[in-house]
């Protein structure tokens, strides 16, 4: 006999009478027959072809699992029937139901995916195939962390393909948990742990509260039986005392709402044991401090009626300040909508009141499944549905794209990213239009920008948070309203951004963009180097074609280059000059007319500045404002150092008054260059310095004292450099060229 993971449902016939059924939602599960399933499924599946698909799937599963029994002696088929029954309660389509019935056949019998494809089509085959792959690495008694992360990743990869895979897998796991009793405690704990790490977070993010809370409570029961029972007892104790109070409250609310002629129905709900456990043991609340253990739910027809009922409740009962939440106007990221308020009832008890429409109630229980209930006659399009889900649940897009990088990310990184970015994303930030974006703790405005859209992230320059302009490294908190400012002049993704971004999805976008950018820049540099080389060879009367022929392996070897691209790249970064190659090849023209550019420090042999009517005077250029030919200048008569020439705007001579004399530039200067200190302000980005240096080299301007630093708060790179220029016109041209560079926003001459 083959024994399987799943075990028989233990129907609890001898339940303790002190445990009322509604407080113990997970106690006792009636077994379903195929007839039960068929009745439920066919209540919403009317189409004959679809009905046949379900019936055929059952017949095939029954035949294939025949003779196999679960540990308890139960025929194996009981498990797929129960899984399909859970699915039918969510009103899934016939393909999903068939897949639920067949989900274990490929793994456990001789049936193949191809057999299923032939009989049931691609959709059913795809779902079963994904489930089989997930099942193949079923908790193989691995304890090592690495293996565990790898397993979990594979489960997520399998599930990210199609949301139907997730829903069937959740139903499968739920039934396994319901029937966990017969397994050894060790296995019970392992399965429960995996459930809380992998399945309930995804159920939560999909808003399938019904499955989530049942799975959580069951897992807790096996992982922490003492605490589970403690809470169960506390609930039961309080329940007895509260029943009367609760009924009173419900009646009062019902009377008031009825008086107003608003249609409604009412329910009361006990907080799940697991969520009480979390509040008590993870958030350290006392049981009696948890106000929303008991909630009254009022369900009505329209949104307007929800607010009307809220008005009635607040007018009658004292609301507890700070506890009102309007999830109708601001839905949770898993689509949950409802009004929540906490009130003090007449007898001093505290209750949470939840008010919502029927539709919202269904979404609250079934989440994503409520939105995509099977509709007879409407043609199902898996792709469109997946897209629709990605639109409605924006985290799902991250989930899918993260899961695409199957081969790149290491399992631990993937799991860390998933739990950081998605499962622990509990900071809710709003767009100006009121859309909720959920982010992990510590996430910044830059992360927010990337959540909105990759393009928004790539061109972000800052953000307006609650009306104030802030930089991209600002940490967001729940309730912030954030708007991203973008600009063509954004520095774009750069190394610095990798530090600012906290979400794995933003980091991965940034990394990709940096890689792409550097590949693009390399191509550009190769082209620049090539052009420079062509020109230098032309100066030696060598054609482009000949040059290409001449630059052979010997040249590459000489300059230690792997290929010609690398050589041209080296030329563009000035690590190799074309003349070195020309000299190596011995092809330099005899009388080279290549001009050497002379770089001079401040003074040449000839005085650049003349003072009218005076000759042979000691004249020097001021080091503070560095005047250059073309600048408006003035002479300052110093004590013992002759005349020092300043720019007319230099603050250092503003009060010099009588000690200044008029001077002008010598018009017959010849080629000479003068140092000018400048500062370049730019949004920090990759290759900024390379581009700046490219401008200097293109203009043949010598430089000195290059220094660069980044102002972290504003991500501004400030580059200070001394340039050697012949006159103010050249300097102006240089400024124009620098300002044309991407992300450069200011260039200044410096006065010391
Ligand atoms: Mn199964």
CATH superfamily of the domain at 14-227: Hypothetical protein af1432
CATH topology of the domain at 14-227: Hypothetical protein af1432
Identify the overall geometry: elongated
Label the CATH architecture of the domain at 14-227. Answer: Orthogonal Bundle
Radius of gyration: 38 Å
Quickly count the helices: 29
What's the main sheet like? 6 strands, mixed
Mean pLDDT: 82
What's the CATH class of the domain at 14-227, please? Mainly Alpha
Describe this structure in words.
There is one protein chain. With 752 residues, this protein is an alpha+beta fold. Among the domains are: 214 residues, Hypothetical protein af1432 (Orthogonal Bundle); 144 residues, Beta Polymerase, domain 2; 83 residues, no CATH class; 76 residues, Alpha-Beta Plaits. It is built from 29 helices and 21 strands. Strands 1, 2, 3, 4, 5 and 6 form a six-stranded mixed sheet that branches. A four-stranded mixed sheet has the order 13-15-14-16, with no helix packed on it. The protein has a four-stranded antiparallel sheet with strand order 19-20-18-21, with helices on one face. Helix 4 crosses helix 9, helix 7 packs antiparallel against helix 8 and helix 18 packs antiparallel against helix 19. The termini are far apart. The site of manganese (II) ion has 5 residues, from loops.
């Amino acid at each position: 006999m083959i024994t399987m993971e799943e075990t028989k449902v233990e129907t609890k016939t001898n339940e303790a009478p002190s445990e009322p059924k509604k407080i113990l939602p997970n106690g006792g599960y009636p077994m379903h027959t195929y007839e039960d399933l068929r009745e439920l499924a066919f209540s919403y599946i009317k189409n004959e072809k679809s009905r046949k698909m379900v019936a055929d799937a059952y017949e095939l599963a029954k035949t294939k699992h025949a003779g196999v029994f679960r540990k308890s002696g139960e025929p194996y088929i009981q498990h797929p029937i129960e899984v399909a029954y859970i699915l039918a309660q969510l009103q899934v389509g016939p393909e999903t139901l068939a897949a639920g019935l067949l989900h274990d056949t490929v793994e456990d019998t001789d049936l193949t995916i191809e057999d299923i494809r032939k009989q049931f089509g691609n959709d059913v085959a795809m779902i079963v195939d994904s489930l089989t792959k997930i099942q193949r690495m079923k908790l193989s008694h691995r304890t090592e962390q690495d293996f565990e992360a790898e397993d979990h990743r594979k489960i997520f990869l399998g599930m990210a393909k199609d949301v139907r895979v997730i829903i069937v897998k959740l139903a499968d796991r739920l039934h396994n948990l319901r029937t966990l009793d017969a397994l050894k405690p060790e296995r019970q704990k392992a399965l429960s742990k995996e459930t809380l790490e992998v399945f309930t977070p995804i159920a939560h993010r999909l808003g399938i509260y019904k499955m989530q809370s049942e799975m959580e409570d069951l897992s807790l029961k096996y992982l922490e039986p003492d605490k589970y029972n403690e809470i169960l007892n506390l609930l039961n104790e309080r329940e007895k005392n509260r029943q009367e109070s609760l009924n009173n409250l419900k009646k009062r609310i019902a009377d008031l709402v009825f008086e107003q002629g608003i249609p409604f129905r009412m329910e009361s709900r006990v907080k799940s044991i697991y969520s009480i456990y979390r509040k008590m043991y993870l958030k350290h609340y006392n049981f009696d401090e948890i106000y929303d253990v008991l909630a009254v739910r009022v369900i009505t027809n329209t949104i307007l009626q929800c607010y009307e009922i809220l008005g009635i409740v607040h007018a009658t009962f004292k609301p507890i300040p700070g506890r009102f939440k309007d999830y109708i106007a601001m839905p949770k990221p898993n689509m949950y909508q409802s009004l929540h308020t906490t009130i003090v009832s007449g007898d001093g008890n505290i209750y949470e009141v939840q008010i919502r429409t029927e539709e919202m109630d269904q979404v609250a229980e079934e989440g994503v499944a409520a939105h995509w209930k099977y509709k007879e006659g409407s043609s199902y399009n898996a792709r469109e549905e997946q897209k629709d889900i990605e639109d409605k649940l924006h985290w799902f897009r991250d989930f899918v794209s993260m899961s695409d990088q199957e081969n790149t990310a290491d399992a631990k990184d993937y799991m860390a990213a998933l739990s950081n970015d998605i499962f622990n994303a509990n900071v809710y930030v709003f767009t100006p239009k009121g859309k909720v974006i959920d982010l992990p703790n510590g996430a910044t405005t830059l992360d927010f920008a990337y959540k909105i859209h990759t393009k928004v992230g790539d061109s972000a320059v800052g953000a307006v948070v609650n009306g104030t302009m802030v930089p991209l490294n600002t940490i967001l908190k729940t309730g912030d309203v954030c708007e991203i400012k973008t600009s063509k002049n954004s520095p774009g993704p750069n190394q610095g951004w990798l530090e600012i971004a906290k979400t794995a999805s933003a980091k991965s976008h940034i990394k990709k963009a940096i890689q792409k950018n550097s590949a693009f820049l390399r191509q550009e540099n190769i082209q620049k180097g090539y052009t420079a080389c062509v020109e230098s060879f032309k100066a030696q009367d060598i054609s482009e074609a000949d040059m290409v022929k001449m630059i052979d392996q010997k040249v590459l070897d000489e300059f230690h280059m792997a290929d010609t691209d690398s050589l041209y790249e080296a030329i563009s970064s000035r690590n190799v000059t074309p003349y070195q190659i020309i000299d190596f090849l011995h092809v330099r023209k005899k009388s080279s007319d290549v001009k050497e550019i002379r770089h001079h420090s401040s003074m040449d042999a000839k005085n650049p500045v003349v003072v009218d009517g005076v000759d042979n005077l000691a004249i020097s250029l001021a080091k503070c404002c560095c005047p250059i030919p073309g600048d408006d200048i003035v002479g300052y008569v110093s004590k013992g150092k002759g005349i020092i020439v300043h720019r007319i705007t230099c603050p250092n001579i503003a009060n010099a008054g009588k000690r200044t004399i008029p001077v002008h530039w010598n018009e017959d200067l010849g080629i000479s260059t003068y140092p000018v200190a400048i500062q370049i302000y730019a949004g920090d980005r990759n290759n900024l310095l390379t581009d700046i240096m490219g401008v200097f080299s293109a203009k043949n301007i010598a430089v000195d004292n290059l220094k660069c630093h980044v102002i972290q708060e504003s991500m501004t790179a400030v580059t200070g450099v001394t340039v050697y220029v012949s006159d103010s016109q050249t300097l102006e041209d240089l400024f124009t060229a620098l300002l044309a560079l991407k992300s450069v926003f200011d260039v200044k001459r410096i006065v010391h």
